[in-house]
Amino acid sequence: MRILLIEDDNLIGEGLKIGLTKSGFSVDWFRDGKTGLNALEAAPYDAVVLDLTLPKMDGLEVLQQWRKANQDIPVLILTARDTLDERITGLQRGADDYLCKPFALAEVVARLQALIRRRYGQTNPIIEHSLVKFDPNQHKVFLRDQEISLTTREYNLLALFMHNKERVLTRSAIEEKLYTWDDEVNSNALEVHIYNLRQKLGKQFIRTVHGVGYTLGKNDEAD
């Protein structure tokens, strides 16, 4: 899942980017409101972590402009503005959740996971498909109830497929979700990750739709 982080504090921003990346998110970090406002048009993000006190444009103004443009991206506000009136204002302007500084990284992760589940219409935090269980809260994947070890990129790719179980995903759509602006992508990197997932979860688990892209299939042993 790809996250847009807009935070001007270098220490907080660096900590969030590292922590969220370790938790299975791909993170693009921008340090001012103007750049963050425009970034949403440039990539298919799954959620936004938004500070309010930002250079060039206040976070609430950024949020308000997104909502006026009918951007329905889930937005988690992180801010030191902790009065009740300010929290109410943030929610009324279109925020989906609100977390005051200082905060625990684990809570940011949990709230983002909840926002993304809601966006994709999933009520159960554990996603199942065929013989595979995907548990984002524990950052674990199980095949026939046996835990499977995945690399960070394999885990992120599986998360994308599990959140889009009924869709065929094009190569470009997958790469846009999987990689940030800072990543250097080899031409065959996606095929390598898909091959590795098939080796670990079943050769038919990710199905190629020729001329279109990829979608979830079934494990070799499943009916």
TrEMBL record:
<keyword id="KW-0238">DNA-binding</keyword>
<keyword id="KW-0963">Cytoplasm</keyword>
<keyword id="KW-0805">Transcription regulation</keyword>
<feature type="modified residue" description="4-aspartylphosphate">
    <location>
        <position position="51"/>
    </location>
</feature>
<feature type="DNA-binding region" description="OmpR/PhoB-type">
    <location>
        <begin position="124"/>
        <end position="218"/>
    </location>
</feature>
<dbReference type="GO" id="GO:0000976">
    <property type="term" value="F:transcription cis-regulatory region binding"/>
</dbReference>
<dbReference type="Pfam" id="PF00486">
    <property type="entry name" value="Trans_reg_C"/>
</dbReference>
<keyword id="KW-0804">Transcription</keyword>
<feature type="domain" description="Response regulatory">
    <location>
        <begin position="2"/>
        <end position="116"/>
    </location>
</feature>
<feature type="domain" description="OmpR/PhoB-type">
    <location>
        <begin position="124"/>
        <end position="218"/>
    </location>
</feature>
<keyword id="KW-0597">Phosphoprotein</keyword>
<dbReference type="InterPro" id="IPR036388">
    <property type="entry name" value="WH-like_DNA-bd_sf"/>
</dbReference>
<dbReference type="GO" id="GO:0005829">
    <property type="term" value="C:cytosol"/>
</dbReference>
<dbReference type="InterPro" id="IPR001789">
    <property type="entry name" value="Sig_transdc_resp-reg_receiver"/>
</dbReference>
<dbReference type="GO" id="GO:0032993">
    <property type="term" value="C:protein-DNA complex"/>
</dbReference>
<dbReference type="GO" id="GO:0000156">
    <property type="term" value="F:phosphorelay response regulator activity"/>
</dbReference>
<protein>
    <submittedName>
        <fullName>Response regulator</fullName>
    </submittedName>
</protein>
<dbReference type="InterPro" id="IPR011006">
    <property type="entry name" value="CheY-like_superfamily"/>
</dbReference>
<dbReference type="InterPro" id="IPR001867">
    <property type="entry name" value="OmpR/PhoB-type_DNA-bd"/>
</dbReference>
<keyword id="KW-0902">Two-component regulatory system</keyword>
<dbReference type="GO" id="GO:0006355">
    <property type="term" value="P:regulation of DNA-templated transcription"/>
</dbReference>
<dbReference type="Pfam" id="PF00072">
    <property type="entry name" value="Response_reg"/>
</dbReference>
<dbReference type="InterPro" id="IPR039420">
    <property type="entry name" value="WalR-like"/>
</dbReference>
